[in-house]
Amino acid sequence: MKEINLNNTVAIIFKKVRIKKDNYILIPSEVSLGYLDNNEIFTTENKEHSLCSYTSKDILEDDNNELVYGCPILYDELEDLYGKNLSDTELMFRYFTEISKNITFARIQNNLVRIITESLSELGVSKTNTNKKATPVVKTEQSNLPDLKHIDNFALERYVKERVFDADDIIEDICTTIAMNYSAKNKKDIRTMLSIGPTGSGKTMTYQVIAEYLGVPLTIYDCNSITSAGYVGKDIEDSLKEVYINSGKNPEIASKSILVFDEVDKLASRGSDVKDVAVQQALLKLLEGYNYRFPLVKNGTEVSLDTSFMTIACLGAFSSLFETKEKHIGFNLSYDEAKYDVTDEDLIEYGMIRELVGRWKHLFIYKAQTKDSLRRILLESKWSPLLLQQKRYREEFNTELIWDESFIDAYIEESLAKKAGGRSLSKIGANAFVKIDREVLRMSHENPDIKRKVLVNSETIYNNKKFKI
Question: Do residues 239 and 219 make contact, with C-beta atoms less than 8 angstroms apart?
């Protein structure tokens, strides 16, 4: 009997598109060589993807999983089908072409997944249109991570500064630190960071933009949900599970991802409660670098994840620290004035253990957003919720969004009133434009070819029914 080698499996990678409730269309996008494990997870040979089958109900319903695999076949069987004289690429291309002759649907019925394939020719698709399909991406070589050893930190800085404002010195230092981390050969050279500052000052966004530029997974974990193991709540390993899942269940990619612990000041020890110290000690172990083994689900197969070379940052407001200092330090001080005013002893007195404070090699203090910085975010940032809204109206609905100066002034005043900094801008914009969205959608459906203008002013911020089309 011929031995079956599941480490030599070819599968089609499909993009999943929901067309209506419990109904999906599966679009072939790649063909790849890889292997199947005992849990029927298909991992590509280059480790770029670890995917579940399109027969999984949970995966189909999970909007965070765009890709699935299907139609697995042993490489030896491909040779039997098309001939052993063909190259790997030719064999896989022929298989992709064969699968692409059909249209594949997935339907969930009675909690079961039903896969339906129908011939494109039977659906009335002409041969001419069928031949216009894009050439498939054939994955046969390893290219699972961008080149992180040679990061151009100056280009990275420019990219971040186009999106995060009034923190140039901090951005330069964080980008340099991350570039050095990725080029490090010794885990002792990895530097961890602590950023403090008020809500909406840009702490989280800095890492979001950096991860986007580098093309690495980013996991933001809320420390409010952490307790030490044995107490009610989550523990440190839960954050690593999220890292692993966000990295496509690829341990190599996970070990090179960025992990951010938000609101770390909530872990400060208050009095004699032993669990406060225990959680900080567990976080210290993670920051020092450790090879963790943990199951993704209870009694499941253990996975391994080494944090030795992972870039880890901690964020927190530490607001009462600034309120109680004798110097009355405020977040509105310039960076040059404030950066030396928070010491290790201040953080220890606040309730952080000395060992953890010592592990943070860099301390960055963000300022509160001002009227000027909020204006720059709205009118200059590549991530401006206002400019992105204007672009979407123009490109998708043939509608030009026009505002006057009073609209910007009211937008900023509303943000300052909410005391949430730049973080509030998206929420304010979403509320201001929701009635406009409704009208734009209606008019676009009625006649998409008519070019329109939407005029907004300060009244729109306070009453979203006040606008002109």
Answer: yes
